[in-house]
Amino acid sequence: MTPVDDDAPPGSPAESLALIRQEQDKATRTIALNPLVYYVPWGLAWLIGFWLLFLRYGPGGRVYVDLPGWLPLVCLFVLMALAMVSTAVASAVRGRGLAGRSSWQGSAYGFAWFLAFTGVGMTMNHFAELLPEAERGLLWATVSVGVVGVMYMTGAAIWLSRDMFIFGAWLTVINIAGVAAGAGWHSLIISVGGGGGLCLLGLLLELRYRAGRRA
């Protein structure tokens, strides 16, 4: 039986280039965070959660659908918790292929999210009681969404991602528009523009990756 040399070099420069691209693609897919896993769960959480808030607590206190008062927030928080678990698992799997500077960047960025929202929660909890209920909800939502927008733009500077910066800037702009429009409208704007935008971003990044593989 003639032995097979699995380590034999490719037969032509074209085969060598194809092999290099194949290995690069495999390595990129291994360490890159799947955009569908990262963006779509958060997008669905915002899309559904803020949409329910709009239906129950519409502009001027209007009730479009007579849901239990607790239901929209509970749905929003449960969906965000599921999205957080999805992101954490995907990040942990990705982190097993990283070391050194990249690993430190990811850990520091994740810790920055935790500190940012801990600070926001403590601050809002202290001052929100001084406001009417509708304005209290608007304050919580706008400050939280504002932090997300800033963190996306910060992440763009770390990983040199134009897509992250554009979305962070977009989220900041529509958040400002929501504040100007007032309670109720803010929920609708963030549901469609924020949640829908996250889902769209994840889909576009995945399609771009697949197009790059076929090129």
Produce a short descriptive summary.
This protein has helices at about 15-30, 35-55, 70-95, 100-125, 135-160, 160-180, 185-215. The protein has about 220 residues and is mainly alpha-helical. Helix 2 runs antiparallel to helix 3 (about 70-95), helix 2 (about 35-55) runs antiparallel to helix 7 and helix 5 (about 135-160) packs antiparallel against helix 6.
Q: Which labels suit this protein?
A:
215 residues; mainly alpha; globular
Q: Give, in order, the helices and strands.
A: HHHHHHH
Percentage of residues assigned to helices: over 70%
Proportion of beta-strand residues: under 5%
Content-based structural category: mainly alpha
Total of helices: 7
Question: How confident overall, as mean pLDDT?
Answer: 84
Low-confidence stretches: none
Over all CA atoms, what is the radius of gyration? 22 Å
Largest sheet: none
> How far is the N terminus from the C terminus?
40 Å
| Extended strand count | 0
Shape: globular
Structure commentary:
- The chain starts with 12 loop residues before the first helix and ends with a helix.
- It has seven helices and no strands.
- The radius of gyration is 22 Å and the shape is globular.
- It is mainly alpha-helical.
- The protein has helices at residues 13-31, 35-56, 71-95, 101-127, 133-159, 162-181, 185-214.
- The model has no long low-confidence stretch (mean pLDDT 84).
- Helix 2 runs antiparallel to helix 3 (71-95).
